[in-house]
Amino acid sequence: xxxxxxxxxxxxxxxxxxxxxxxxxxxxxxxxxxxxxxxxxxxxxxxxxxxxxxxxxxxxxxxxxxxxxxxxxxxxxxxxxxxxxxxxxxxxxxxxxxxxxxxxxxxxxxxxxxxxxxxxxxxxxxxxxxxxxxxxxxxxxxxxxxxxxxxxxxxxxxxxxxxxxxxxxxxxxxxxxxxxxxxxxxxxxxxxxxxxxxxxxxxxxxxxxxxxxxxxxxxxxxxxxxxxxxxxxxxxxxxxxxxxxxxxxxxxxxxxxxxxxxxxxxxxxxxxxxxxxxxxxxxxxxxxxxxxxxxxxxxxxxxxxxxxxxxxxxxxxxxxxxxxxxxxxxxx
Length: 332
Fold this sequence. Notes:
With 332 residues, this protein is an alpha/beta fold. It folds into 2 domains: 9-224, HUPs (Rossmann fold); 252-329, Uridine Diphospho-n-acetylenolpyruvylglucosamine Reductase, domain 3 (2-Layer Sandwich), CATH 3.30.465. It is 52% helix and 13% strand. The chain has 12 helices and 10 strands. Helix 2 packs across helix 7, helix 6 (138-151) packs across helix 8 (203-218) and helix 6 (138-151) crosses helix 9 (223-251).
């Protein structure tokens, strides 16, 4: 693999993106999440090209979910060899994902995500790394936005994938899949192919392999730019709403669920949109699931009378008691 510090146009653009968005500061220790696929290998080689300019230290993290037998082991071996050739530390964790997903009552996709990010957090804490970089690109962002839309997410959630969320950074969001493949070809870098990405039984694969190509065939060259604009506008809206509701809650303490209740009078003075946002923030603050149906039932509660209640989850409910909507544990 080419280790020359001389940057090509893609690497210069990558460096500019990282600096402009302040994703990595000088002296930071960055973990690169590398599966062995094209996206993560591009992430690896791009960071190798610019690490001196950024003044950062690199290492690699790889999760073997043991879902594809010998192919999964082959991915792990490939990533280990790549790290050895580049002189990078490589952290690897193997998971019995199927068994763990069954025990937790989650889908394999959900369980793999939980395991992946849990391992990231562990390494950040124990090994002293400051950031984890993943290889999500523009195509992943469009998939995530559609996935969220079909799942019933609110308008601000159409922001899609953020370039930075806490210690997780995604520096490739300016690139498309074609850009990544062209870059790997130019640098002569090999990558692994995950056959499970072609399995359309998974919702994300169906969106990627069936739905998006159909839309792009009908609207060539227009879909991804349109989704990117929507993502940016949703992000701007989300930032505005965060500031707006921080100010609103400071002025109206009765709209914060910290004490386990919300003031009915204060809620009734709000618009319908504001009420839903307050309820949404309250549910998140209490660690409860948020969906459109629950928000509709909560806002409808204010049009009834004291004593009415709304089931929030298997063990929690909201009850209108006196002048308050109280969040209570349900009695068995």
